[in-house]
Write a structure and sequence with these properties.
Radius of gyration: 21 Å
Number of strands: 2
Shape: globular
Number of helices: 11
Helix content: over 70%
Structural class: mainly alpha
Distance between the termini: 23 Å
Strand content: under 5%
Oligomer: single chain
């Protein structure tokens, strides 16, 4: 694991060009959401559909770059990797749309399951959506809302928060290898979905779990540091760069880990699902 992390750092530094598509997509998607998600229902639905298409285009091109980054490490000019982005979009755009559909369906199942378990074992908090919406209108309104809660309601809110956190952690763990499996093994979102789960729960399960815990812990730590130290424009800019670097590193680490453990087997390439 340590060797994989070390190599992933080296690859991230070498192929820092990987940050370019991520930064551009973050900027463009933020502007798109800001100006497009308004108007009647038809406009909102159209905006969502176009956003999903943008996301699929970004993920397909970026995943292909990550694949080449970890599998072809002897490039003389790492910056040329950016030229492979359009090829990735052409090859993996439709499969990535299918993968996003899988994620959507799984998320719906997890949301329904969380609601069912929560209502059965925790119960309703007793707060209407209208009251909750009004509580977030201002800081003073939020303070008054929190003071109005009973001890039982606070306990239930904490229980719901814990249940949602656990559910999200489980879902993200199940989805950890979905994109690498799609670009490394089978460009079919439904077959690669099963293949990724098979690899996840293989004999290396505890090693996979350790990787996930490492990712979760590092993200949690970075989130805390960002909250504490972002006190002015300069620090905000610095931590923005750190967060982008971290996201690139995590992507490289997951792809490199998957490549080393489930694709490059004994010097050969395993493309079976």
């Amino acid at each position: 694991m340590l060797n994989c992390v070390k190599k992933s750092f080296q690859l991230t530094n070498k192929y820092i060009i990987l940050a370019t598509p991520l930064i551009l997509f973050s900027l463009l998607s933020s502007l798109y959401v800001l100006f497009s998600f308004r108007g009647d229902l038809i406009n909102v639905i159209t905006a969502i559909a176009l956003f999903v298409a943008m996301l699929a285009a970004f993920l397909s091109g970026w995943a292909y770059m990550l694949k080449l980054c970890v599998s072809e490490t002897e490039s003389n000019d790492p910056n040329l990797l950016i030229k492979e982005f359009p090829a990735g979009v052409g090859e993996y755009f439709l499969p990535t749309l299918g993968l996003l559909l899988n994620v959507f369906i799984i998320s719906i199942v997890f949301i329904w399951g969380t609601y069912f378990v929560g209502m059965k074992f925790i119960g309703d908090i007793g707060i209407s959506a209208k009251v909750l919406s009004a509580a977030f209108e201002s800081v003073e309104a939020l303070k008054l809302f929190l003071l109005s809660l009973s001890k039982e309601q606070i306990i239930k809110i904490n229980a719901w928060n814990f249940l949602i956190l656990i559910t999200m952690c489980v879902e993200y763990f199940l989805l950890m290898f979905q994109l690498p499996a799609l670009v490394f093994k089978k460009a079919n979102p439904f077959i690669s979905f099963l293949g990724a789960l098979k690899d996840l729960f293989s004999k290396t399960f505890f090693k996979n779990l350790l990787l996930y815990i490492l990712l979760f812990a590092s993200y949690f730590l970075l989130s805390i540091l960002t909250t504490i130290f972002v006190v002015n424009v300069v620090m905000h800019f610095i931590f923005t760069l750190i967060n982008f670097y971290y996201l690139v590193f995590v992507a490289v680490l997951v792809f490199n880990y998957y490549y080393e453990n489930f694709v490059k087997i004994g010097g050969n390439f395993d493309e079976t699902v």
